[in-house]
Amino acid sequence: MTITQLEYVIAVDNHRHFGRAAESCHVTQPTLSMQINKLEEDLGVKLFDRDKKPIEPTAVGRRIIDQARIIVAEGGRLRQLAQEARSTYEGDLRLGIIPTIAPYLLPRILDRFRSRFPDVHLIIEEAQTDTIVQKLKLDQLDAGILATPLEDKAIIEEPVYYEPFMAFIPEGHRLDGEKFITNSELSTRDMLLLNEGHCFRNSVLNLCAETDPQNDRSRVSLESGNFETLIRLSMKGYGMTLLPYLGALDLPDRLQQFVRPIADPKPSREVSVIFSKNQVKVGLIRGLGEVIRNSVPPKLLEPGKVVSPLRQ
């Protein structure tokens, strides 16, 4: 029995397909299949029911695969401890990040991260919260950057900054001319929202005084995660919208005049670096967190009134 064989077994469990598992392990399918067959012979049991589509672990296979995950994680932990002792990090860091954070945060942190960790290959995947959390649990990602709290006991959350919500009020809107907006003035009746699945949408709905978007047919709901689209429709008179602070900060000068702060206590989203409790690259991930904290405006490091990304 070898660590490599256990890694191949875990890959098949993750992908439920020998071909995709082999691709993820950067080996040919015959090589992967041969090693798994050899492990099954050594153990004297079948780990997978190959007649099912997709492939599924057998009852005993499920128990062995769960133990294999622990063994592989502990092996990785030994390598990680050695790297930390040498104060050097190398290899891959697989990072998931949600679409409402990625375009505003990544340009701020990538150069700093590469400078601090020159031997680390950062692999970035943009995905929604549920997908990132699932992939963390399956060890298909090492860390995620998203809005918290998630209330998931299998996930460790380490906040890195607190990002206020900013109101985008177009000319002619009922709130046009206001220097700041209060929570009680926010309503889904004239609010442009992201589509279902975006935690930023959930936070906005939890913040608004009125949260029954189905009652007003004049409101436009978008199947898009693109704030630029929201802004363009807002400028055409379809309503107002809310933006994350870093997104508002990056707007061109001609649009800055339409951005309004929301009154104290400023509603914010808590942005965290998250990882599985079984993760072995904790030192590197916490280093990423430090890079993020050093890359955002200092005012974002102080906690605000956190608005939950969970549906209420």
Explain the overall architecture.
- It is elongated, with a radius of gyration of 23 Å.
- Helices cover 41% and strands 18% of the residues.
- Residues 215-219 have low confidence and may be disordered.
- The chain has helices at residues 3-15, 18-25, 29-43, 59-85, 102-116, 129-137, 199-207, 227-238, 245-249, 253-256, 282-293; strands at 48-49, 56-57, 91-97, 120-126, 143-148, 155-168, 241-244, 259-261, 267-276, 305-306.
- The protein is an alpha/beta fold and 312 residues long.
- Strands 3, 4, 5, 6, 7, 8, 9 and 10 form an 8-stranded mixed sheet that branches. A two-stranded antiparallel sheet has the order 1-2.
- The protein is built from 11 helices and 10 strands.
- Helix 1 (3-15) packs across helix 2, helix 1 crosses helix 3 (29-43) and helix 1 (3-15) packs across helix 4.
The low-confidence parts are: 215-219
Quantity of strands, as a count: 10
Distance between the termini: 48 Å
Summed up, the helix count is 11
Question: Roughly how many Å is the radius of gyration?
Answer: 23 Å
Coarse structural class: alpha/beta
Mean pLDDT: 89
Shape: elongated
Helix content: 40-55%
